[in-house]
Write a structure and sequence with these properties.
The protein has 371 residues and is an alpha/beta fold. The protein contains 16 helices and 13 strands. The strands form 2 sheets. A 7-stranded parallel beta sheet has the order 3-2-1-4-5-6-7, with helices on both faces. It has a 6-stranded parallel beta sheet with strand order 10-9-8-11-12-13, sandwiched between helices. Strand 1, helix 1 and strand 2 form a beta-alpha-beta unit. The two termini are 13 Å apart. The mean pLDDT is 95.
Length: 371
């Protein structure tokens, strides 16, 4: 007899990361239902991709802000779903969704339902603002006792959860990078041709939202330190810091070597034609974009922060730098350009090191936690 499983998350988390797991679990002994908060307008996409896969799809009125009164309605929605569902296992994700699901499942747990909470990055971490610690730490510590297991995707969170005295804490290698979409297609776009760059141009690449946390301004400042005009910086992504970053590149007189490409559907092609991937983030749970770059065979230059230190080995995978030390980033970029053999060695190592983080392995790890 199939085990009844409820998976809860935002619609964005479901689309971006969880759908392959839903399909795999459905094919391997679970009768799956999902409950999502509609924060990104992706519910129709979820319904289409999971047609015939899940028994039911529920929408709960939750928002990402912990202080929003709307979450009381979402709690009521979730409680109805859980109390009617008679689930064997509930797998919940993300802070607000995770707290609400665990509290709503208190009665179900007394009747034998097992609840598993997956942390994709605590909001309290080494170097986090004090307000994060004051708000989120006590909530997570309290809610951590309303589930059977807490699962983390990086070592810092794992150690923190253990110190919080939670009943059962496990570490896994994330929820998987989608290797299928990282496979080069027969007809690839040429970013060098599009930008009018030669084959000798040394391309450094960032992929992600242009925001304060992703900290792309550090790389722009590094570009301002670099005199080599054959080094160019490509940014793929949109965000509220676009105008600020463009203004900074103009102020540093590097606009001719910095390329803001916006949202792209050919990131894999761009990655395969770049030389180095840079990620100067201030905060990461598990850095999916860096893992994808590793899979594509790029050396990395990243921040020395939680999540990135889980996938990076300084001097072997690439280099780790202080998030705000643009001079160090500049030095490492120039160093890798001057040592193509080292780049090749790092690229080879990264293709091997990324294997545990790929989706096929991740599906097995998650399945092992739920069965």
């Amino acid at each position: 007899m199939s085990k009844r499983l409820l998976i809860t998350s935002t619609d964005l988390m479901m689309v971006q990361f969880l759908i392959p797991h839903v399909i795999y679990l459905s094919e391997n002994g679970f009768e799956v239902e999902i409950a999502c908060s509609d924060v990104g307008g992706r519910m129709d996409e979820i319904r289409e991709k999971l047609k015939g896969v899940v028994k039911d799809i529920h929408i709960v009125r939750l928002v990402r802000s912990p202080a929003s009164p709307t979450n009381f309605k979402g709690y009521g929605d979730m409680k109805k779903v859980i109390n009617r569902g008679n689930y064997d296992v509930i797998w919940t994700n993300e802070p607000v969704m995770g707290v609400v699901t665990r509290l709503a499942a208190r009665k179900a747990r007394k009747n034998g339902t097992k609840v598993i909470y997956m942390v994709h990055g605590f909001h309290f971490y080494e170097g986090a603002p004090k307000v994060n610690w004051m708000m989120f730490y006590p909530i997570e510590k309290f809610a951590g006792h309303f589930c059977e297991r807490v699962v983390t995707v990086n070592r810092e969170d794992f150690a923190r959860a253990k110190k919080m005295g939670l009943p059962d804490v496990k570490y896994i290698h994330g929820i998987g990078i989608n290797t299928e979409r990282l496979t080069p297609q027969e007809h690839q776009s040429s970013i060098r041709k599009e930008l009018g760059l030669s084959k000798d141009t040394f391309l450094i690449l960032s992929v992600g939202e242009l925001n304060e946390n992703k900290n792309q301004k550090t790389i722009l400042k590094a570009m301002g330190e670099i005199e080599d005009k054959e080094i160019h910086y490509i940014l793929c992504g949109k965000g509220d810091k676009l105008d600020d970053l463009k203004g900074l590149s103009e102020a540093l007189d590097i606009s001719d070597r910095v390329h803001f490409l916006g949202y792209r559907t050919d990131v894999v092609d761009i990655c395969n034609q770049s030389n180095v991937y840079v990620m100067p983030s201030k905060r990461e749970g598990l850095p999916v974009a860096s893992l994808e770059a590793m899979y594509c065979g790029l050396p990395l230059i990243t921040s020395n922060i939680r999540g990135l230190v889980d996938v990076m080995e300084d001097g072997v995978s690439g280099y780790l730098c202080n998030p705000d030390d643009w001079k160090q980033f500049a030095e490492r970029i120039v160093e890798l350009k001057s040592q193509p053999e080292l780049c090749e060695k790092m690229a080879k190592r990264n293709k091997e090191a990324v294997i545990p983080f790929c989706i096929e392995n991740a599906k097995e790890e998650v399945f092992g936690l739920l069965k």
